[in-house]
Amino acid sequence: MVDDEELRLWFCEEVLPLEKGLMGYIRANWRSPHDVVDLRQEIYERAITGARSALPAHTRAYIYTVARNHLINRARRAKIVSIEAIADLESVIVPDALAGSERHLSARDELRRAEAGLNQLPPRCRQVIWLRKVEGMSTREAAQHLGISTHTVEKHLTEGLRALANFMLDYPQVRSAPKVLRWKARRK
Asked: pLDDT, tens digit, for every residue of 97-122?
Protein backbone atom coordinates (compact mmCIF):
# COMPACT_ATOMS: atom_id res chain seq x y z
CA MET A 1 0.00 0.00 0.00
CA VAL A 2 1.39 3.39 -1.03
CA ASP A 3 1.11 6.15 1.56
CA ASP A 4 -0.66 9.40 0.68
CA GLU A 5 2.49 11.53 0.58
CA GLU A 6 4.26 9.17 -1.81
CA LEU A 7 1.12 9.00 -3.97
CA ARG A 8 0.86 12.81 -4.03
CA LEU A 9 4.52 13.12 -4.99
CA TRP A 10 4.13 10.52 -7.77
CA PHE A 11 1.06 12.33 -9.11
CA CYS A 12 2.72 15.76 -9.08
CA GLU A 13 6.06 14.66 -10.54
CA GLU A 14 5.05 11.96 -13.00
CA VAL A 15 1.36 12.30 -13.88
CA LEU A 16 0.79 16.06 -14.08
CA PRO A 17 3.57 16.56 -16.68
CA LEU A 18 1.56 14.23 -18.96
CA GLU A 19 -1.55 16.41 -18.76
CA LYS A 20 -1.10 18.25 -22.06
CA GLY A 21 -0.66 15.02 -24.01
CA LEU A 22 -3.50 13.37 -22.10
CA MET A 23 -5.86 16.25 -22.89
CA GLY A 24 -4.93 15.99 -26.57
CA TYR A 25 -5.54 12.24 -26.46
CA ILE A 26 -8.97 12.73 -24.86
CA ARG A 27 -9.92 15.47 -27.35
CA ALA A 28 -8.84 13.30 -30.27
CA ASN A 29 -10.85 10.32 -29.07
CA TRP A 30 -14.00 11.85 -27.60
CA ARG A 31 -16.71 13.57 -29.62
CA SER A 32 -17.99 16.07 -27.08
CA PRO A 33 -15.44 18.77 -26.22
CA HIS A 34 -17.56 19.72 -23.19
CA ASP A 35 -16.73 16.40 -21.49
CA VAL A 36 -12.94 16.62 -21.80
CA VAL A 37 -12.21 18.20 -18.39
CA ASP A 38 -14.58 15.83 -16.58
CA LEU A 39 -13.07 12.85 -18.36
CA ARG A 40 -9.58 13.97 -17.36
CA GLN A 41 -10.63 14.16 -13.71
CA GLU A 42 -12.28 10.73 -13.86
CA ILE A 43 -9.12 9.30 -15.42
CA TYR A 44 -6.99 10.87 -12.70
CA GLU A 45 -9.30 9.45 -10.05
CA ARG A 46 -9.07 5.95 -11.52
CA ALA A 47 -5.30 6.23 -11.91
CA ILE A 48 -4.82 7.27 -8.29
CA THR A 49 -7.15 4.56 -7.04
CA GLY A 50 -5.21 1.95 -9.01
CA ALA A 51 -1.82 3.29 -7.91
CA ARG A 52 -2.74 3.09 -4.20
CA SER A 53 -1.76 -0.58 -4.09
CA ALA A 54 1.57 -0.06 -5.90
CA LEU A 55 2.98 2.71 -8.04
CA PRO A 56 3.19 1.70 -11.71
CA ALA A 57 6.64 1.14 -13.18
CA HIS A 58 5.71 2.95 -16.41
CA THR A 59 3.54 5.93 -15.54
CA ARG A 60 2.93 7.13 -19.10
CA ALA A 61 1.76 3.71 -20.29
CA TYR A 62 -0.37 3.31 -17.17
CA ILE A 63 -2.11 6.69 -17.56
CA TYR A 64 -2.87 6.15 -21.25
CA THR A 65 -4.17 2.64 -20.54
CA VAL A 66 -6.47 4.01 -17.84
CA ALA A 67 -7.60 6.77 -20.23
CA ARG A 68 -8.27 4.39 -23.11
CA ASN A 69 -10.21 1.94 -20.95
CA HIS A 70 -12.23 4.72 -19.37
CA LEU A 71 -13.16 6.23 -22.75
CA ILE A 72 -14.23 2.82 -24.04
CA ASN A 73 -16.32 2.18 -20.92
CA ARG A 74 -17.98 5.59 -21.17
CA ALA A 75 -18.75 5.05 -24.86
CA ARG A 76 -20.25 1.64 -24.16
CA ARG A 77 -22.43 3.01 -21.36
CA ALA A 78 -23.76 5.82 -23.54
CA LYS A 79 -27.38 5.31 -24.55
CA ILE A 80 -26.65 5.85 -28.24
CA VAL A 81 -23.26 4.62 -29.32
CA SER A 82 -21.90 5.07 -32.79
CA ILE A 83 -20.21 1.92 -34.05
CA GLU A 84 -17.53 4.15 -35.57
CA ALA A 85 -16.82 5.68 -32.15
CA ILE A 86 -16.15 2.28 -30.59
CA ALA A 87 -14.17 1.15 -33.62
CA ASP A 88 -12.11 4.35 -33.51
CA LEU A 89 -11.35 3.87 -29.82
CA GLU A 90 -10.52 0.20 -30.34
CA SER A 91 -8.05 1.06 -33.10
CA VAL A 92 -6.24 3.82 -31.23
CA ILE A 93 -2.54 3.16 -30.98
CA VAL A 94 -1.46 4.07 -27.50
CA PRO A 95 2.11 5.23 -26.77
CA ASP A 96 5.12 2.91 -27.16
CA ALA A 97 4.98 0.93 -23.94
CA LEU A 98 1.43 -0.22 -24.65
CA ALA A 99 1.94 -1.45 -28.19
CA GLY A 100 2.75 -4.99 -27.09
CA SER A 101 0.38 -5.04 -24.16
CA GLU A 102 -0.94 -8.51 -23.47
CA ARG A 103 -4.35 -7.15 -22.53
CA HIS A 104 -4.60 -5.28 -25.80
CA LEU A 105 -3.77 -8.40 -27.79
CA SER A 106 -6.17 -10.46 -25.72
CA ALA A 107 -9.01 -8.01 -26.37
CA ARG A 108 -8.29 -8.07 -30.12
CA ASP A 109 -8.34 -11.89 -30.07
CA GLU A 110 -11.67 -11.86 -28.24
CA LEU A 111 -13.12 -9.46 -30.80
CA ARG A 112 -11.94 -11.68 -33.67
CA ARG A 113 -13.34 -14.73 -31.89
CA ALA A 114 -16.72 -13.02 -31.43
CA GLU A 115 -16.75 -12.10 -35.11
CA ALA A 116 -15.97 -15.71 -36.06
CA GLY A 117 -18.76 -16.90 -33.77
CA LEU A 118 -21.22 -14.45 -35.32
CA ASN A 119 -20.25 -15.60 -38.80
CA GLN A 120 -21.11 -19.21 -37.87
CA LEU A 121 -24.67 -18.32 -36.90
CA PRO A 122 -27.55 -18.68 -39.36
CA PRO A 123 -28.06 -15.47 -41.36
CA ARG A 124 -31.39 -14.47 -39.75
CA CYS A 125 -30.05 -15.15 -36.26
CA ARG A 126 -26.96 -13.06 -37.05
CA GLN A 127 -29.19 -10.23 -38.34
CA VAL A 128 -31.29 -10.26 -35.18
CA ILE A 129 -28.23 -10.13 -32.91
CA TRP A 130 -26.72 -7.32 -34.99
CA LEU A 131 -29.89 -5.23 -34.94
CA ARG A 132 -30.60 -5.76 -31.24
CA LYS A 133 -27.10 -5.65 -29.74
CA VAL A 134 -25.09 -3.50 -32.15
CA GLU A 135 -27.67 -1.20 -33.72
CA GLY A 136 -29.57 -0.97 -30.42
CA MET A 137 -33.02 -1.61 -31.87
CA SER A 138 -35.85 -2.74 -29.63
CA THR A 139 -37.41 -6.17 -30.14
CA ARG A 140 -40.39 -4.57 -31.85
CA GLU A 141 -38.21 -2.42 -34.15
CA ALA A 142 -36.08 -5.42 -35.14
CA ALA A 143 -39.23 -7.46 -35.85
CA GLN A 144 -40.66 -4.71 -38.06
CA HIS A 145 -37.34 -4.22 -39.84
CA LEU A 146 -37.05 -7.94 -40.63
CA GLY A 147 -40.76 -8.57 -41.22
CA ILE A 148 -41.04 -11.25 -38.51
CA SER A 149 -42.87 -11.52 -35.18
CA THR A 150 -41.41 -10.27 -31.90
CA HIS A 151 -41.55 -13.84 -30.59
CA THR A 152 -39.34 -14.96 -33.49
CA VAL A 153 -36.90 -12.11 -32.80
CA GLU A 154 -36.69 -13.17 -29.14
CA LYS A 155 -36.17 -16.81 -30.14
CA HIS A 156 -33.39 -15.94 -32.62
CA LEU A 157 -31.76 -13.65 -30.06
CA THR A 158 -31.85 -16.25 -27.28
CA GLU A 159 -30.61 -19.09 -29.47
CA GLY A 160 -27.95 -16.93 -31.12
CA LEU A 161 -26.56 -15.42 -27.93
CA ARG A 162 -26.47 -18.84 -26.30
CA ALA A 163 -24.60 -20.32 -29.28
CA LEU A 164 -22.26 -17.32 -29.38
CA ALA A 165 -21.53 -17.64 -25.66
CA ASN A 166 -20.86 -21.36 -26.09
CA PHE A 167 -18.54 -20.60 -29.00
CA MET A 168 -16.69 -17.93 -27.02
CA LEU A 169 -16.34 -20.20 -24.00
CA ASP A 170 -15.46 -23.33 -26.01
CA TYR A 171 -18.41 -25.30 -24.63
CA PRO A 172 -19.88 -27.06 -27.66
CA GLN A 173 -21.27 -29.79 -25.37
CA VAL A 174 -23.86 -27.41 -23.89
CA ARG A 175 -27.34 -28.57 -24.88
CA SER A 176 -28.34 -25.52 -26.95
CA ALA A 177 -25.28 -25.42 -29.21
CA PRO A 178 -26.05 -28.58 -31.22
CA LYS A 179 -29.65 -27.37 -31.69
CA VAL A 180 -28.41 -24.14 -33.26
CA LEU A 181 -25.91 -26.02 -35.39
CA ARG A 182 -28.68 -28.42 -36.58
CA TRP A 183 -30.85 -25.37 -37.23
CA LYS A 184 -28.09 -23.86 -39.34
CA ALA A 185 -27.66 -27.07 -41.35
CA ARG A 186 -31.42 -27.27 -42.05
CA ARG A 187 -31.60 -23.68 -43.31
CA LYS A 188 -28.86 -24.07 -45.94
From this structure: 444 555 666 677 778 888 888 888 99
